[in-house]
Amino acid sequence: MAAQGATASRSGLRSALPLLAPAYLWLTVAIFLPLSAMVFFSFMTELPLSGKPWAFTLGNYAAFFSQSLYLTLLLASLRLGLVVTLWCIVIGYPAAYVLAKVLKGRSREAIFLLVILPFWSNGLVRIFSWAMVLREGGILDTALNAVLPFKINIDLMYSYPAVIIGLVHSYVPYMVLTCYLTLQAIDDSLIEAGRSLGASRLQVLKRVIIPLSMPGLVAGAALIFVPVVGSFMEPRILGGRTGTFYGTVIEDQFVAVFNWPLGAALSFILLAVVLIILAVASPVLRRAA
Amino acid sequence: MAGVQVSNVSRSFGAHKALDDVSIDFADGGFYALLGPSGSGKTTLLRQVAGFDFPDSGRISIGGESVERVPVEKRRIGMVFQNYALFPNMSVADNVAFGLSVRGEAKAVIASEVQRALDLVQLGKLGGRRPHQLSGGQRQRVALARAIVTKPRVLLLDEPLGALDKALRVDMQIELKRIQREIGITTIFVTHDQEEALTMSDRIGILRDGRLVQEGPPEEIYDQPKSEFAATFLGDANIFRGESTGNGIKLPDGTAIAAGAGAKLAAGAKASCAVRPERIRIATDVEAQDAANANMLKGQVSKRIFAGNNSTYFVERGGQTLKVIVQNTGIDRLAEGQDVVLRWAPESTVLIATS
Ligand SMILES: Nc1ncnc2c1ncn2[C@@H]1O[C@H](COP(=O)(O)OP(=O)(O)O)[C@@H](O)[C@H]1O
Ligand SMILES: [Mg+2]
């Protein structure tokens, strides 16, 4: 089937060209040109716009390897990406399963809306509302102390967990959506067939449902992992001093230090690392899917 | 192997009664066809036996063991779905192995059992294929192999041949029947195809609106239908409606139709008679006497459909169109518009009480 699709699309390419042209034009203008400029910048000593004299250098890339801080932060960011992705799977997959296989009609639509809502709200608003919930004397703290008979101090603000909570909240809809789509495509009769053959619900989940929804899990994970590794907004606002990650350092180079060349070089190193990870992981994941 | 008893089972969805007090005894080793129009509750009944759904009331037992509240995976049944429901992420062999593998059988045992099951359905060489690389008929065979490899107590099939084309369907009917005989498994077969039910099963149950209308061996239901519905749903029938004369009926125009010797019904009640089209003789000699075929009606041929080995005549008589099927003997070809006389034996007439 896949092979058929490929040959069909190849022969149909010529006629599809007029349809594809606007998309390619847009990609060229909006992504390729700025990106090329950034590649160019990353090899410069100074920003040409600043008026100072500049020259070509590999120094910006060398900086990454000369200071262990960058590597440490990159590893921390990769770990952050992994943890957030795992939490998104843990929370998002069951939610997608319930949406696709348990709920029907109205209640499905309502829950779907709740899951998608963070998607539609402004990122900053989302993060600052978490700040109000998580800080000492904030909503979570006050609510828990109102219910519990003893006094506890909940101050998650400016901590690693706060960053995780904020990021998971932002990105879990991706996982729910991609998993929902693959789960919904699984015919209920497959589940019934499994059970009629003596498999418990858990065995059906492990042997039939999860393998068949692997493409959704992989797509969701890729959609979440990549941006989370480079994220800076949630770490900065919710993480405070603990929120220094690779992404925040890149942001600093652009908005605070105005060292665009170094910022650009650090970005491309991140891009390379992420691409290598995806390339290494993809054969394994493809086999699983 | 075991028989299945369904006793007074009812199941409603909201206000709709999908099953209404159904009782059927599925004999051990028998091949039972559940026949009925779409929406009559066949699938619902099968799902109660399988354990995908539970009855509101009534009892179900498999092999004498009460199973109403036993979940599917504990009932030891085999099921074949209309859309095959093969696992697309597994090879044919892994599909067939699934039931044995979740049970924790040893690898060597699984391999030999799977091969035996695939050989039984004549797919011994295709174990390595993926389901999407198979034709419809082959998928059906894999689904069957997968369902029987676990040695279930009952085999349940929900319109398993519905998606196949006619020629393949006939092949599969023969094949399915052969396999069923070979392993002697109690089989419940859901179909809406009356011919399939007649040729394959040793008992048929006819469902309508969630009720069991009639059940018995195919010959009995065909020859002695107890309702107009059973008469017309299983095969073709000419239905005459009138008033009971005890062992026959009188049509509104006064014509009497005699039923077989066994027929008995209170005189004066509303009743109908059913006659199979192939039991009626059609002739042009109005005056001739035929003592054996005492029932006689005059009419006019309105249409003839030639089908090679037989012809179907549509005969207009008193505002009713009657159907007569005549074997092609090379003689007695009647033209449209011709006046004819229809004769048939009282023994070929079934008297049916109507309400
Ligand atoms: N899960 C269900 N929810 C609501 N109604 C149902 C459900 N399953 C079956 N029905 C209804 O019960 C009736 C019988 O259905 P079914 O057993 O599938 O008929 P058949 O298999 O004979 O075509 C139908 O009217 C159908 O709409
Ligand atoms: Mg059905």
From TrEMBL, chain A:
Coiled coil: none annotated. Its main location: membrane. It comes from Mesorhizobium waimense. Pfam families: BPD_transp_1. GO terms for biological process: transmembrane transport. The chain crosses the membrane at residues 23-43, 55-74, 80-99, 111-133, 158-183, 204-226, 262-285. It is a multi-pass membrane protein. Keywords: Cell membrane, Membrane, Transmembrane, Transmembrane helix, Transport. One of its GO terms (cellular component) is plasma membrane. The keyword DNA-binding does not apply. The keyword Transmembrane applies. This is ABC transporter permease.
UniProtKB/TrEMBL annotation, chain B:
Its EC number is 7.6.2.11. InterPro entries: AAA+_ATPase, ABC_SmlMolc_Importer, ABC_transporter-like_ATP-bd, ABC_transporter-like_CS, Mo/tungstate-bd_C_term_dom, P-loop_NTPase, PotA-like, Transp-assoc_OB_typ2. GO terms for cellular component: ATP-binding cassette (ABC) transporter complex. Residues 4-234 form the ABC transporter domain. Keywords: ATP-binding, Cell membrane, Membrane, Nucleotide-binding, Translocase, Transport. The keyword Zinc-finger does not apply. Coiled coil: none annotated. It catalyses: ATP + H2O + polyamine-[polyamine-binding protein]Side 1 = ADP + phosphate + polyamineSide 2 + [polyamine-binding protein]Side 1. The keyword Protein biosynthesis does not apply. One of its GO terms (biological process) is putrescine transport. Pfam families: ABC_tran, TOBE_2. One of its GO terms (molecular function) is ATP binding. Belongs to the ABC transporter superfamily. Spermidine/putrescine importer (TC 3.A.1.11.1) family. The complex is composed of two ATP-binding proteins (PotA), two transmembrane proteins (PotB and PotC) and a solute-binding protein (PotD). Part of the ABC transporter complex PotABCD involved in spermidine/putrescine import. Responsible for energy coupling to the transport system. This is Spermidine/putrescine import ATP-binding protein PotA. The gene is potA.
